[in-house]
């Protein structure tokens, strides 16, 4: 499958930064491991947290053993992902975006729950 990954970063002053990468693989693995196509650097994410695959033209997501995966807020196992659905992988939100006529999957990835700064609490 060909996929376009959009990594979205919200800046403190309200701006948005988008980094886009193209990948091609039979399955897309999401996690902290360097071998994951969807590389999520937060320590609250497992090395291999979830896997995306295509079946009959539909995108499916499944958590790795011991990992939590939420679809639109509900805990789930293997699930079909539709355009507009929000998957929660640790502190990240992954959304399947509309693809205007292309033959690729478009996923947006955003860190929605950043780690707290413990230094402020100590001061």
Order of helices and strands: EEEEEEEEEEEEH
How large is the radius of gyration?
Answer: 15 Å
Give the overall form.
globular
**Beta-strand content bin:** over 45%
Helix content: under 10%
Could you explain how this protein is built, in words?
By secondary structure, this protein is mostly beta strands. The chain is globular and about 50 Å long. The protein contains 1 helix and 12 strands; from the N terminus they run E-E-E-E-E-E-E-E-E-E-E-E-H. The mean pLDDT is 90. The chain is 4% helix and 49% strand. The longest helix has 5 residues, at 118-122.
Features:
123 residues, seven-stranded mixed beta sheet, 1 helix, globular
In short:
The chain has 123 residues and is mostly beta strands.
Secondary structure elements and their pairing?
Layout: E1 2-10, E2 16-24, E3 27-31, E4 38-39, E5 50-55, E6 58-63, E7 70-71, E8 74-75, E9 79-81, E10 86-89, E11 92-96, E12 105-111, H1 118-122
Parallel strand pairs: 1-12, 3-4
Antiparallel strand pairs: 1-2, 3-5, 5-6, 6-9, 7-8, 7-10, 10-11, 11-12
